[in-house]
Every structure is written in structure tokens, then in C-alpha cells.
Amino acid sequence: MANSKYAAFIAAAEEGNMTAAAQKLGYTQSGVSHLVHTLEQELGVQLLIRSKAGVELSPEGKALIGHIRRLIAAENAVLSAAEELRGVERGTLRIGTFSSVAIAWLPSVMARFNARYPGIAITIENGTYSPIEDMLSSSLLDCAFVALPSRAEFETVPLARDRLLAVVHQDSPLAAKRSLSAEDVANETFIVPAEGTSHDVGRFFSRAGIRPKAVLNMGDDYAAAAMVERALGFTILPELMLGAMHLGNVRTVPLEHSEREIGLAMNANYHSPALAAFGAFMREFIKEG
Predict the structure, then answer these.
(1) Which residues make Cβ contacts (< 8 Å) with residue 28, sequence separation at least 6?
(2) Pair 106, 100: CB distance under 8 Å
(3) Cβ distance 122 to 90 under 8 Å?
(4) 227-258 burial: b if 16+ Cβ within 10 Å, else e
(5) Rounded distance, CA 93 to CA 25, Å?
């Protein structure tokens, strides 16, 4: 207990004897006497009347003992709450994510995590890579799903690798190929997905020194796929996202040497039991498949 003086006073008052109070608390008799005397000096009143028969409450002690009991109860409540937090019984967690993870993983993740830790309140912010990383950097989020490598300021945990696939119309000559290079699609109409061309998709083209023929910038993965369904061009989407889509009239073709690594990023300046629990849970979730 943080304030042992209060405990010594209560024990002495209840036992009516300094020696019995010391035995109850595991202190020496002189230790209990010193603690009570120090409390009396701090408060400026005599709390106990001492005699050869033992001790009893003074009028001032009777007036204050109820307040002191409440102080001890409040301290115990603080300690109990802290213990619960260490045991991840309560807490808050602000998670950033992008669409493919939000669709493919988060429904199962949230159901299972909430069942295990019902006292943790979770809020989720869905967006694209850069805005989510900006929010994490500004401490508006506690953690975020990101594409690795991410910013050096974050602590990251690798979770899974995810292939990038070309989505082409079923009647396109590209649909018959086993894989596609950047050169294969260089002259095709490219429908830009939600991610844009600054991250995974951009690296696929930049490695070959090719600028995609982007005439439709949809800013939305479902909208980009819908354009492909109408034979208006091709797009590139992660396999994780495509697994949650139900598309007609299209084929998916692997891209050569192109995949992304998904990780969980955390702000290096903030740690909490809830955040540690979520990181451990995600590693378990990915391992179990």
C-alpha cells in the first residue's frame, strides 16, 4: 500500500494494541508506533490515546477514521484498476487499416479479439497507406496495418506476404498468360486502384522503368474492378482484397516478382497492455491462418 501510515493507524485502532497491529501488518511494534506518530504530526492532531492497556481512538481520531478508511478504499480501487490494466481487462485501442485488411481480416480479428478482451474499447480508422501512417505518426492512432517497409519512426511487426495480381477482362489476350511483366501491360489502359501509384503498384512499374497508361483514376478498389468487368482496361489489386470480391467477366493473373508485405506498425513513443495484447494476438491470428 502506498501510504502505510494510514494502514498502521487503522490497524492500531481496530486491534486496540500496537503489538497486535504490528503482527497484523507484518511490521515491528516500534515501526507501527512510528508510522502512527508521523501521521499525527502530519495532520496536527492526536489520533490515538495511549495507555498501559493499549490504545483507543481520541475524539479527533473518531472524527477522522471514516475519512481515512475511504482514502484506503480509494487507494485500493486505484491499485485494482491498475492491476486490471496490466492484465488487459480494460483499455482503449485506436487501429488504422486499409481496405484489404479491413475486409479480409478485421471481421474475424475483431470478433475473436473482443471475445478474449471484452473490456478493451476499439476504434478503427480505414484509409490508404500514407494517410494512415500520418495519423499514426501524429499519435492519432495506437497502431496501424501498413505495407512494409514503413517509416523508420515506427516499430513494426511483419505479419504476412500478399501477392499483387493483375485483374483483366476474361476476353483480353492477357487472361491466357500464366504471369505478366510490366512490359506485358505497358500499352494497356491502366485503371488506378485506391492505393494509387506511390507504393506497391508504383514499384511494379518503376522497376521496369515504365510509366503506366493511367486514364481512369478511380480511388476505389471496387470501382476499379467494376471498370475491368466492362472491359475498360486492367487494374492491379492485392490477392487479399480479391479474395473478398465477387467479380464476373474477369481473370486474375500473377505479376512477376511483385508482392507486398503487410505488417503492424506502432508508435515507438507509446506502449500499453492493450496494444501489446493486440500485437501478440495478430501474430497468433496469422500463424493459425
Answers:
(1) 22
(2) no
(3) no
(4) bbeeeebbbbbbbbbbeebebeebbbbbbeeb
(5) 39
Total number of domains constituting the chain: 3
Of 38, 60, 86, which residue constitutes the final position of a domain? 86
Count the residues in the chain.
Answer: 289
Strand arrangement of the beta sheet that strand 91-98 belongs to: 120-127, 91-98, 143-148, 250-267, 154-169, 235-238
Residue 109: name the closest of 237, 280, 243 by CA.
Answer: 280
Range of the domain at 103: 91-160+262-288
Q: Which residue has the cell 478498389?
A: 221
Residue-wise pLDDT for 108-120, tens only, equals 999 999 999 998 8
Percent of the chain scoring above 70 in pLDDT: 96
Q: What is the rounded distance in angstroms from the CA atom of residue 144 to the CA atom of residue 96?
A: 4
- 8 Å CB contact between 245 and 174: no
Place of cell 480479428: 109
pLDDT tens-digit series, residues 168-205:
999 999 999 999 999 999 999 999 998 887 788 888 88
DSSP 142: S
Residue 222's nearest CA partner among 205, 239, 237, 201 is 237
* Alpha carbons 201 and 193: distance in angstroms, whole number: 9
pLDDT of residue 122: 94
Q: Which CATH number fits the domain that encloses residue 20?
A: 1.10.10.10
Domain check: are 156 and 266 in the same one? yes
Looking up residue 151, the CATH number of its domain turns out to be 3.40.190.10
Contacts for 2 with CB less than 8 Å, ≥ 6 apart: 75
